[in-house]
Design brief:
Length: 410
């Protein structure tokens, strides 16, 4: 039988006997633990030598002696000679010093686990009967995959001394388009402050005692003002809770993420941002529209449709080689069309309006700039929608002239 322990080696002497490839592979784990390392080996592999020089480690360039292990908390022996390794293990056994024998793990008093980390959680895997590092590594990798995907419980059951806020970009909607880091942070969260357009399905995976606060905005209806959202984030974090601010798209693309970060920093609350797939690119992509395409568009200009039409937007619309992407622009489309045509933008400029991108309700309306507002009204286009203006919006750009399911060509 084997008992698995979590041992702190910070500041404690660890002696590595042998300087070959095995030592080179395992040395970083002891370095990460902050151990006081001594290497005893007449010859060093290239990897071991690089680490030794980089970290200024103590090295005795000679065969091992019994007195080398005297002050050690842990000894790792990997000389490549089973007889020497067995002798080192015997010295340690008689002195009650834990020893990892790389030549024969079953004859050492300690073994290294196959290890994985997720945030502040460390998972170790080893076999209780015999030594099977490949099996342990396969199981470690499987568990690590579940941890990265946020499919295993990672929450602390007690509040920590200091809370934190993570702004997580949820992408265009589907849970499997979220980042691995975002999924993991959700699995660790005590509180989730969620937008309407974030990946709603992922909320159903949360533990039942996770507080979910809906602050979603709808056109003309903002039930929770931004200042109040900022205060919610700060107040919950000050209670020692881990707070995830879950947003659709990317937090820094018209998501007011900058305002929320500034509020946290001003309050002394630790905060980080996890990027997400922005709808600027991902929603047109769902409809087969690249925002840039060699020979067609060399750049793209992003517009908040609720804002005034600026001179830079009109310049982009006039430029045949630039794609203009409009977010939150359905209600203001008539105003945009009027300003663009008046500024000399060709009325024939192709336009695609993609509603509910990456969902079963996705629909694309193809039209031209001059008719965009009329066709949008006729098709009863509704938010959330992304408007793409430019030659990349031509239906024939990639696949030839076509009419896909859920697509209206006018």
């Amino acid at each position: 039988m084997t008992t698995m322990l979590g041992i702190s080696l910070a500041g404690r002497r660890v002696v590595l006997v042998g300087g070959g490839a095995v030592t080179g592979r395992r040395l970083p784990r002891f370095l990460d633990d902050g151990a006081d390392i001594l290497i005893v080996a007449p010859i060093l592999s290239d990897d071991t030598r690089v680490l030794l020089e980089r970290h200024g480690l103590r090295h005795e360039s000679r065969p091992v002696r019994v007195d080398d292990v005297e002050d050690a908390w842990l000894v790792h022996t990997a000389t490549g000679d089973p007889r020497v390794d067995a002798e080192v293990a015997a010295w340690c056994e008689s002195r009650r010093i834990l020893c990892i024998n790389a030549s024969n793990g079953a004859h050492g008093s300690a073994r290294l686990t196959a290890e994985s980390r997720a945030g502040d959680v460390v998972v170790g895997v080893m076999s209780d009967s015999g030594v099977d590092p490949r099996r342990a590594a396969r199981l470690r990798d499987a568990i690590a995959g579940l941890l990265r995907e946020g499919r295993l419980p990672l929450r602390r059951r007690r509040r920590s001394a200091a809370g934190r806020v993570d702004l997580v970009g949820g992408g265009p909607g589907p849970t499997d388009l979220m980042t691995i880091r975002g999924r993991r942070l959700l699995a660790e969260a005590d509180v989730v402050v969620a937008d309407r357009l974030g990946p709603a399905d992922v909320l159903a995976e949360l533990d039942s005692d996770v507080e979910v606060i809906d602050v979603g905005k709808r056109p003309g209806h903002h039930p929770v003002p931004q200042e109040e959202i900022n205060q919610i984030l700060v107040d919950r974090a000050r209670l020692g809770l881990r707070v995830v601010r879950l947003k659709g798209g990317d937090p820094f693309v018209y998501g007011r993420g900058g305002e929320e970060v500034a509020a946290c920093l001003a309050a002394g609350v630790p905060v980080e941002v996890v990027p997400g797939l922005t709808s600027v690119v991902s929603v047109p992509q769902a409809a087969g529209i690249p925002v840039t395409h060699r020979g067609t568009a060399v750049g793209f200009h992003v517009v908040n449709g609720q804002a005034e039409v600026t001179s830079s937007t009109l310049d982009a619309l006039r430029d045949d080689s630039v794609t203009t992407v409009v977010l939150m622009g359905v209600a203001a489309l008539r105003k945009l069309v009027s300003a663009a045509v008046e500024a000399g933008v060709p009325a024939s400029r192709p336009v695609a309006i993609v509603e509910n991108g990456h969902t079963p309700q996705q629909r694309t309306t193809r039209t031209t700039l001059g008719r965009a507002h009329l066709d949008a009204e006729a098709a009863q286009v509704r938010n959330p929608a992304v408007i793409v203006i430019g030659d990349v919006a031509r239906a024939s750009l990639l696949l030839g002239v076509h009419e896909e399911a859920g697509e209206t060509v006018r």
